[in-house]
Amino acid sequence: MNAPRKEPASLSFRERLSSGQPLIGTWVKTPSTIVCEVLSATRLDVLALDAEHAPFGRLELDGCLAVTRLAGMPSLVRIPSTNAADILNALDCGATGVIAPHVTSAEEARALVKACHFGPGGRGYAGSTRAAELGRKKMPAHLEASRQQTTVVAQIEDVPAVDAIDEIAAVDGVDCLFVGRIDLTVALGAESPASPAVIEAVERVCAAGRAAGRRVGMFVSDLEEVDRWMAAGATLFLLSSDHSFLSEGADRLAARFRTP
């Protein structure tokens, strides 16, 4: 692994997110250590490994997170479900935090937070994990680092979630509400992510985040929308993906080659 080590950030990713500074990351859809190595050497703030919709197995996820940690690149894992085992695996492998899909109630949000942290009925402890530096980090240090740095992101992508957004946003320990706009479009029966009903739902999430002091994140396909949503309170943007970089770059190359 040849990814250069980055200078340590003065603030952790969770602290930077909490501060409200604009952050940009991208989705990683390819379970490849090489892809993660390349992207970890960029000026992005975070990588989001999509274990919900891409074919990440446990071993692939572990390898990719080893690379991001080596390079000093923060990493979020969109887990396949809010099952405690999926949360445990991502965090034990060394993820900075998790993006939990389809959080629809305050009760689910509280369960998510509990599963992300050590404590009674919460995340199970093992000192041999990558997160514990394969046994080199002592228990007190590991517990404190997890408490301070583990980032909990609840994805809002269902009608019941929008209906309960004020209650979800009020849950202590939820660091960010992430808008799943495409799923919201489908759930609302809308024609496109630009439909008025979808825009209204996204605005409700942003308003709830502002009122509760929670950060809001989202994906937008059109970069022209970023300024609008930043003005509404969004600060975390996970834009494009490794797949998009490959296909768009290849199309640009072919177009330039064939241009007279």
The amount of beta strand, in percent, is 15-25%
What global shape is seen? Answer: globular
Distance between the termini: 41 Å
Total helical elements: 12
- Largest sheet at a glance? 8 strands, parallel, barrel
How would you describe this structure to a colleague?
By secondary structure, the chain is α/β, with parallel strands linked by helices. The chain has a single domain (13-258), classed as Phosphoenolpyruvate-binding domains (TIM Barrel), CATH 3.20.20.60. It is 45% helix and 16% strand. It has twelve helices and eight strands. It has helices spanning 13-19, 33-40, 58-71, 84-92, 106-116, 139-149, 159-163, 165-169, 181-187, 196-212, 226-231, 242-258; strands at 23-28, 46-50, 75-78, 97-100, 151-156, 176-179, 215-218, 234-241. Strands 1-2-3-4-5-6-7-8 form an eight-stranded parallel beta barrel, surrounded by seven helices. Strand 2 (46-50), helix 3 and strand 3 form a beta-alpha-beta unit. The longest helix is centred in the last third of the chain and has 17 residues, at 196-212. Mean pLDDT is 95; it is low at 1-7.
Give keywords:
260 residues, alpha/beta, TIM Barrel, 8-stranded parallel beta barrel, 12 helices
Topology summary:
Blueprint (H helix, E strand, L loop, with lengths): L12 H7 L3 E6 L4 H8 L5 E5 L7 H14 L3 E4 L5 H9 L4 E4 L5 H11 L22 H11 L1 E6 L2 H5 L1 H5 L6 E4 L1 H7 L8 H17 L2 E4 L7 H6 L2 E8 H17 L2
Parallel strand pairs: 1-2, 1-8, 2-3, 3-4, 4-5, 5-6, 6-7, 7-8
Helix pairs in contact: 2-3
